[in-house]
Amino acid sequence: MGFRVLTGLFGHESNAFSKLPTALTNFEDYLLAFGDDVPAKIKGARIEPTGVEEAAAALDWNLVRTVVAWATPSGPVADDAWAACSGAILNAAETEGPFNGILLNLHGAMAQRRFPDAEGELLSELRAIVGPDVPLAITLDLHANVTDRMTEMADIVVAYRTYPHIDQVDTSWRAAKILDRAMRGEIKPKAVTARRAMIEGLDDGRTTVENPMLELLRQAGAIEKTEPGVLAISVHAGFTPADLDQAGPSVTVTGDGRDSRFSAIAETFMDYAWQTRHFDSNTYLGVAETVAETRRLIAGPGRQGPVVIADFSDNPGSGAYGDSTFLLQGLIDAGFTNAAFGTICDSDAAAALIEAGEGADVTVPLGGKIDPAYGPPLTLTGTVERITDGVYVALGPRWKGVTHRLGPTAVFRIGGISIVVASNRVQLTEIEAFTHAGIDPRTLDVVAVKSMQHFRAAYQPIAGAIVICDSGALSGKDISKLPYTRLRRPIFPLDLD
Predict the structure, then answer these.
(1) pLDDT tier at 300 (50, 70, 90 boundaries)?
(2) What are phi and psi for residue 189, nearest 5 degrees?
(3) Mean pLDDT of 217-242
(4) CATH 3.40.50.2300 occupies which residues in the chain?
(5) Backbone phi, then psi, for 309, in 5-degree steps?
(6) Which of 156, 217, 199, 192 is nearest to 267 (CA)?
(7) Does position 232 have pLDDT exceeding 60, yes or no?
(8) β-bridge mates for residue 103, sequence order
(9) Which one, out of 169, 357, 368, 399, has a CA that is 20 to 30 A from the CA of 226?
(10) pLDDT digits (tens, 9 = 90+) for 447-456
(11) 1 falls in which pLDDT band (50, 70, 90)?
(12) Are 247 and 152 spatial neighbours (Cβ–Cβ below 8 Å)?
């Protein structure tokens, strides 16, 4: 009989400065299943638990499934979600053991109302149940804030190596292979983590351009192949809007046993991260600059495909509210035509548009409901073009096979701009967010999306040009506005150059 392995996915990227707590209903809106319902829930999806299932079948493991839970980034995880999701893992650990090993898919930047280092808390509680000798592997997002507590509790740490994240399945496979060797007694993995006095760096982890992140990932792959005992090197860009002492870029080396070489590798990598801390491959434009650049690109010769504008400062994938109106106001005032905007999250406006019905001309206050400081409501008159249930299956590389739920949704036409008005906050990473509502981005001149980097997986292949806009919403570039209370100081770029 094969090894008995406890597994589960509990993932959330928590913006400590968001007013919106992440409740169990938010996980239900995105991805949530428990126990034996997990395989059916993830069928066809190319996400981490799929990799665990594939590895278990190939390696002859007996999986004890607990939960798959993922929600759009927002404020810290609420008590009901924490109790249900961490409870599923801990209850199984108490009642369904013993286990030969554990493989958990986490994010690494989750916060809970009572536990700023939520993954550290979960792993500590799990260790208290299973003891120190059961090998425990975790997979992480490359935007993880890896704390000393997490490193102490987990033996094996394996992070994504792509941003946009398209290697979730492969990441689980990498972790599973190391765990399998540990369960067979071939190795005794231990993890060590290094960091510096920085909350930003490594080009935010982007892997679509030549930058410090790609250089370290290349070095990581080479060292894993040539350095004896090095099992995995995980490079994390960190998650900036986390009010956590040890937030920020880090490198974790998982080695066979305890050896000073492993710490030296992590420290050398972080030396390079510090030396290159100022590198940023993006050019960030304000709204007026974005409008001017978009006009120039549309008028220029040889463009094939739409100008894709990414409002990274109102990216729900960073925990922003998704209802900022600054960029939308700029595009309307500029009179752009043959354009689409996705999305404005406003359930009240969506309900009013749906009640009016397709073809109706209606006036509604749109957006700016959560915090008008990040873009106030706009009173707009336009036509309801389309009504949908907001449900689509993602076909792009980022979330392929995962069902997204925008909630009741309406397409609201203002002049030459079709605005997707959604009821739920979802980062716009997929072309299907538009096509499910009858909008084909390939045929447009301008497509605005609320995303930072993940949109590139689906949109870069069709884009004639890409413009990054800092419209001044919650997740903007100026982090000096964020009221950190727990973050270690001094730190780059808040205090150090």
Answers:
(1) confident
(2) -70, 145
(3) 98
(4) 4-275
(5) -105, 125
(6) 192
(7) yes
(8) 7, 137
(9) 169
(10) 999 999 999 9
(11) low
(12) no
Is the separation of the CB atoms in 343 and 450 below 8 Å? yes
Contact 34, 67 (CB under 8 A): yes
The encoded tokens of residue 273 equal 């991260």
Q: Any idea how long the chain is?
A: 497
Q: Is the dihedral of CA 378, 383, 385, 391 positive or negative?
A: positive
Residue with tokens 């880090």: 250
**What CA–CA distance (Å, rounded) separates 268 from 261?**
10
Q: Which of 258, 372, 358 is nearest to 19 (CA)?
A: 372
Q: Is the dihedral of CA 362, 365, 369, 374 positive or negative?
A: positive
Task: Give the chain's mean pLDDT.
Answer: 97
**In 3D, which of 286, 282, 266 has the Cα closest to residue 274?**
266
Q: Considering only CA atoms, which of 243, 341, 350 is closest in space to residue 18?
A: 243
Residue type at 181? R
- Partnered with residue 409 across adjacent β-strands are 388
Q: 460-470: per-residue pLDDT in tens? A: 999 999 999 99
Q: What average pLDDT does this structure show over 222-226?
A: 98
How many whole angstroms from its chain centre is CA 204? Answer: 12
Dist CA 351 CA 10 (whole Å) = 31
Quick count: other Cβ atoms within 10 Å of Cβ 164? 24
The radius of gyration of the chain from alpha carbons, rounded to an integer in Å, stands at: 23
| Residue type present at position 192 | V
- Band the pLDDT of 458: cuts 50, 70, 90: very high
* Per-position b or e across 221-237, b if 16+ CB within 10 A of its CB: eeeeeeeeebbbbbbbb
